[in-house]
Amino acid sequence: MKPMKGAGYISDRDILIAVTINILGVYTLSLPRILAEDTTAADGWVGILLGGGVACILAWVVAKLTLLYPNKSFFSIASDLVTKPIAVILTFLFTLQYIAITSLQVREVSALAHQYLFDQTPLEVISLSFLLVVVYGVCGSRAGIFRLNALFLPFVMAGLLLIVVLPLAFIKTENLLPVFQTDFKGYVKSTYSSLNTFAGFGIILFYIALVKNPKNTPKMAVKGVMFNTILYTILYIVCIGTFGNSTTANLFFPTFDLSRTVEIPGGFFERFDAFLFLAWTIILFVHCLMAFDIAVMTIMMVFKKVKKINLVITLTPLIFFISMIPKDYVELTHLARYISLTKLTSLLLVIVLLWSAYKIKGGQTK
Fold this sequence. Notes:
Layout: H1 12-24, H2 27-38, H3 44-67, H4 74-82, H5 84-116, H6 123-138, H7 142-165, H8 173-176, H9 184-198, H10 204-207, H11 217-243, H12 245-249, H13 254-260, H14 272-302, H15 308-323, H16 329-360
């Protein structure tokens, strides 16, 4: 079966890279703060491992389910399992969700740039500039987005490696102790927060139809989640070891602040955080690009004759408007948590609904 118009085929390796980068996203910057609010000392690593384990299982289930309908879109799979009207509702639910995620990404990267680099530039100008670059990327081919993922991956990995390795000299052992002092409620909340962060694997639902030979896609999806679980665990321990639990809980982007603790002598490397900001911008750009693309893709699944460029032009003002709604960091944090909750809840509901329908039908596909 031919892929959707303008899509092109991708490989298993592209899914692995896409899941890895999409999970990273903007939540990597704030995850240590969220976990530090719920746990004591460095106990947040328990929530990361538990959340990562659950996400691995869910990613495997999603990939296995979609694998039963090779090269079919999410809308086609849902129509077959739960009737077309319900499939339309589910598809538009994801459309709204990914429009909101794109808006959040635009606002978060603008807030980050405004706080650390362009404090004299209006937030609206930064947001619009970033969004227009994303629009240019979305207007291209879908396979091109995955090539960008593969192209940027070495830079992203190098940036993350520097963030983890360079602050090691600043870690204080007393910040990591005592261990296992968090109550049960704290572990549950930290696991839930971590699981929200790992929900980026949900892109499999939409992109697996483009995989030419999807036989190994479930394994690749799980590998992508496992890699992020290990990375988040190391990053969290380094963050808590450097700042301590209380300080981390009060930093808006503790992961980015981690890069600002590093001082390298020499004029060229004095603003080391600027180089790491480049790595974060790449991650956020690719994440935003895929979210916008999925929003467009889901609409085109239902309205097959609509041109992609027209959808992009129509959605861009709406995304910009939503990104400007939060008035300050507090409202932005609340919006991020609401979107995370909606993203995880809708993903879980769809997985349970489709898998149950498949089992009720006796494991038969059209």
